[in-house]
Write a structure and sequence with these properties.
202 residues, mainly alpha, 0% strand, Nickel/cobalt efflux system, transmembrane, membrane, transmembrane helix, Chloro_ReproSupport/MetalTrans
Length: 202
């Protein structure tokens, strides 16, 4: 295996693994539960794009400056993620309480997904996973290739999550409405609980 292929493969694999971080699943699952999974795939895709833009921006700054990410920046972004997850969970409960006779617009789903992804991509381990290895590479172009493959891996994995959520909600909606409602409730509880756990850990 050539060094170039190793760098690109590690970047892609790191992105796939990172997509399954609990806070990512809490956000995508919580938002998907709001509309019974109608926009799960759409939300997952736009979340991945927002996340990728944030990581790409941080990577560019690190490669140009040749320095690591300031701790205060990551800590602030982590706190934003925590409050965002709590908000997602509360909104999900609100929609459940109203039995939401109306649905969010596709444009609204896209906007919220991109913003959630941007905040996630700016926080915690995502920039570290993608950027710290890139900063030690021989050239900025190779470093950016690593980051781009990281983003591709993450988007591919989150797309699979979106498909699974959409299929799961659709199946339960056709045959087991009570179980579908239970899954929506669990998704909201998980988002709120994980948000509070992030706050308490800082």
């Amino acid at each position: 295996m050539s060094p170039l292929f190793s760098v690109l493969f590690i970047g892609f694999a790191a992105g796939v693994v990172h997509a399954f971080d609990p806070d990512h699943l809490a956000a995508v699952g919580g938002m998907s539960g709001r509309d019974k999974g109608r926009y799960s795939l759409r939300f997952a895709l736009h979340w991945g794009l927002g996340h990728g833009l944030a990581v790409l921006g941080v990577a560019s700054a690190v490669l140009l400056a040749g320095s690591a990410i300031p701790y205060d920046f990551s800590a602030t972004a982590e706190a934003l993620v925590a409050w965002m997850l709590i908000g997602i969970g509360l909104l999900s409960f609100y929609h459940l309480w109203r039995q939401h006779q109306h649905h969010d617009s596709k444009q609204g789903v896209r906007r919220s997904a991109v913003w959630v992804g941007l905040i996630h991509g700016s926080a915690g381990s995502a920039p570290l996973l993608a950027v710290i290895p890139a900063a030690g590479l021989a050239s900025p172009s190779l470093g950016m290739a690593h980051v781009l493959l990281f983003n591709l891996g993450l988007i591919a994995a989150m797309t699979a999550v979106g498909l699974a959520l959409r299929g799961g909600f659709a199946f339960l909606g056709q045959r087991h409405h009570h179980m579908q409602h239970g899954l929506q409730t669990l998704s909201a509880m998980f988002a709120i609980g994980f948000g509070f756990s992030l706050l308490l850990s800082h």
